[in-house]
Amino acid sequence: MDLQTILSKLFANAGAVGIEGTFQFVFGPQLAFWSEVKAHSRTEAGRHPAPDVTIEVAQADFLGIMGGSANVEELFASGRLKIGGNMGLATLLPQIIDHARHGGGALEKKVEMNTRYPTPPRYSETVSAGLPTQRTVERRPRSGLSVEEFRTRYLPQGIPVVISDALRDWPLFQLSREESLVHFAELQGITRHGDYVKKTFSTERDFRSTSMAEFIASLDNPAPKNADGEPPAYMGNNILPAQLLEQIQYPPYFDRSLFIPPRIWIGPKGTLTPLHRDDTDNLFAQVWGQKSFILAAPHHREALGTWSTAPQGGLDGCEVNPDAPDYERFPASRNVTFLRVILEAGDLLFLPEGWFHQVQSVSTSLSVNFWVNSGRGW
């Protein structure tokens, strides 16, 4: 199958999930195609005069992506795939590829990007509503918490727990900042800039392609807040590059086959991800520095003014700010018990599916998290 046909199939139904724009693919000096994505998409040979996104990638790597033997995020992180233009739109490329590779057709209802939808309830809400109110997060040393106890005491009912001294066998944890920079050479990630807190989960956030090594080297001298009080730049939710996988260890509490490829989070003091919840269990490892977590149980969905990025839910944000709740708009938030946790370097937090969490860097920080398709309660 030729490249133009593959791209035509790739973007055939991208408009159905609310994605619109022009994607330029450059496979070599004389080999380029562009795809205009709208309700009805089209793909043409050559170069578009004003593409929204430009993607430079070797033909063999692109065919690997479409065949399932290569990952677009990993190729980007390793520098083998270059992206220019609207990075917010570019961040949707993995979603487009996954939709096409798994035979996704047009959705019954078009998803409007950056629209907030009502949040459907989850089974985890029923579970947490039936438990006694949790007021603190238990902290257990790794040596005192067996895999069996984790799976019987914390996992079934979705109870958060901090496991201390959990990263002692991680080479990345043992390295100094200076030593670790060697492993970040030639790697790249996507950074968030501007007021990414107010634009939570929006593709309109200011995303930029950034060298990982240069970003880490700049962490001790981040740009000061501007007059609008915007947070510092944050390299959040990037796939952990393949070159760094040998520097970590997968936690033993779940079968390895259930893990989603791990993600890396790097930033200076002050980076903030506002209150939200994920759709899988999460193991969050703190490698450098400290991070502050504010948690709320799943059954507080309505009290927190929760909204979703898609009609079926999945990634859910909140209107309520746990640091300054607006009780006039959300009176039921008075009844929410917020749990506050400080993760120290070497800690691993089990964050069960459905638990709301706000995350802030207390100091220069590097974290790795593992989302897990455990299927708990589904």
Provide structural commentary:
- The protein is of the alpha+beta class and 378 residues long.
- 19% of the residues lie in helices and 29% in strands.
- The chain has a seven-stranded antiparallel sheet, with no helix packed on it. It has a seven-stranded mixed sheet with strand order 7-8-19-14-21-12-11.
- β2 and β3 form a beta hairpin.
Q: Could you state the CATH homologous superfamily of the largest domain?
A: Cupin
Overall average pLDDT: 91
Rg, nearest Å = 21 Å
CATH topology of the largest domain: Jelly Rolls
DSSP summary: helix tally: 11
Low-confidence residue ranges: none
User: Strands across the major sheet, in which order?
Assistant: 6-16-17-13-20-15-18
Please write the CATH class name of the largest domain: Mainly Beta
Morphology: globular
What fraction, in percent, of the residue positions are helical? 10-25%
Q: Compute the separation of the termini in Å.
A: 39 Å
**Number of β-strand runs:** 21
Total separate domains: 2
Q: Summarize the main sheet.
A: 7 strands, antiparallel
Region (Disordered): 116-144
Biased composition (Polar residues): 125-135
Domain JmjC: 240-378
Pfam family, one: Cupin_8
What structural keywords apply?
378 residues, Jelly Rolls, Nonspecific Lipid-transfer Protein, Chain A, seven-stranded mixed beta sheet, 11 helices, seven-stranded antiparallel beta sheet, 2 domains, alpha+beta, 21 strands
In short:
With 378 residues, the chain is of the alpha+beta class. The protein has 11 helices and 21 strands.
How is the topology of this model organized?
Blueprint: H1 3-10, E1 21-28, E2 31-37, E3 42-45, E4 53-57, H2 59-67, H3 72-77, E5 81-85, H4 87-90, H5 93-101, E6 117-118, H6 123-129, E7 138-141, H7 147-154, E8 161-164, H8 171-174, H9 177-184, E9 188-193, E10 206-211, H10 212-217, E11 235-239, H11 242-245, E12 263-267, E13 272-277, E14 281-288, E15 291-296, E16 306-308, E17 316-318, E18 339-343, E19 348-351, E20 356-361, E21 365-372
Parallel strand pairs: 1-4, 7-8
Antiparallel strand pairs: 1-2, 2-3, 4-5, 6-16, 8-19, 9-10, 11-12, 12-21, 13-17, 13-20, 14-19, 14-21, 15-18, 15-20, 16-17
InterPro entries: Cupin_8, JmjC_dom, SCP2_sterol-bd_dom, SCP2_sterol-bd_dom_sf
Biased composition (Polar residues): 125-135
Organism: Pseudomonas chlororaphis
